[in-house]
Amino acid sequence: MTLAEALAQSVNTIAVQVAERAGVARVVATASRLGIASDLAPDASIALGTNEVNLLELVSAYAPFANGGNGILAYGITEIRDTSGHVLYRRSGSGPGQVVAPELVGLMNEMLAGVIGHGTGKAATLPRPAAGKTGTTQEYRDAWFVGYTADLVAGVWFGNDDNTPTNRVTGGSLPAIAWRRFMLAATQGMPLRALPSAPVPEQSGLDRLFGWLAPPAAIPASERLPPGLPVAPPPDPARYPGPRIGN
Question: Mean pLDDT, the chain, as a whole number?
């Protein structure tokens, strides 16, 4: 099974393999860079979603894939005025800048679009380019869907206030349906725009880039790397720094 298909179908065993191959510390660092502020336990179970984060963090973390790779700082107040009209507060500043390289944004968008196109998020299908991911915790206590178009990112969570199990609600059911209904209304009248993408080298197609996850027989002959060609170049430490002690 390729990584793209594993992501589309929410195959947890593949997610764990990816985390172990990349290094859990790097997974935590990447989550932080994307906008996850909650403390994350640095163990392999992070790939299964065992750490608790809030929906605002998740939506913020998906925003770079929608906007071309730029991190955001979520906010809910743009300006405060007193009764006389004087401005007491006005939000200023911007996000942390580029947090994901454009070529990687394109790869992620291709994979996450597959979740809606033929994976667990089919109920979220829109009449415009969109991508996203379903999520369901143990015993169906939480179910969520976070997705985006080129203009809007939104997330939906279903669960009980007392943390009791739901009636077998999964991220691909009610959350995906609710997300679709909201997005249909919110994007009405907006022009159709493709998700951000970037040209990739001919030998760096999505499944070829991560082909080490699939046995050779599972990859079409036309997409296999020539013998001796590395699957992917090592990351540039200056561009994608790993975790630092104390951070």
Answer: 83
- Rounded to an integer, what distance in angstroms lies between the CA atom of residue 90 and that of residue 107? 37
Closest CA to 33 of 59, 68, 72, 74: 72
Q: How many CA atoms lie within 13 A of 68 on its CB side?
A: 6
pLDDT per residue over 204-214, tens digit each? 444 444 444 44
> pTM of the full predicted structure?
0.78
Residue 22 lies in a domain: yes
Of 22, 64, 68, residue with least CA distance to 46: 22
Range of the domain at 119: 3-223
Per the domain annotation, does 228 fall within a domain?
Answer: no
Task: Compute the distance between CA of residue 153 and CA of residue 130 in angstroms, rounded to an integer.
Answer: 10
Instruction: Please answer whether residues 23 and 240 qualify as being in contact, where contact means their C-beta atoms are separated by less than 8 angstroms.
Output: no
Residue with structure tokens 């793209």?
4
Give the Cβ contact number of residue 170 at 10 Å. Answer: 20
C-alpha angle with apex 217: 212 to 218, nearest 5 degrees?
65
Q: Does 30 map to a domain? A: yes
CATH at 120: 3.40.710.10
What's the structural domain count of the chain?
1
Provide the 3-class DSSP secondary structure of residue 98. Answer: strand
Q: 54 near 142, Cβ under 8 Å? A: no
Establish if 240 belongs to a structural domain.
no
Spatial distance between the Cα atoms of 195 and 131, rounded to a whole number of angstroms = 8
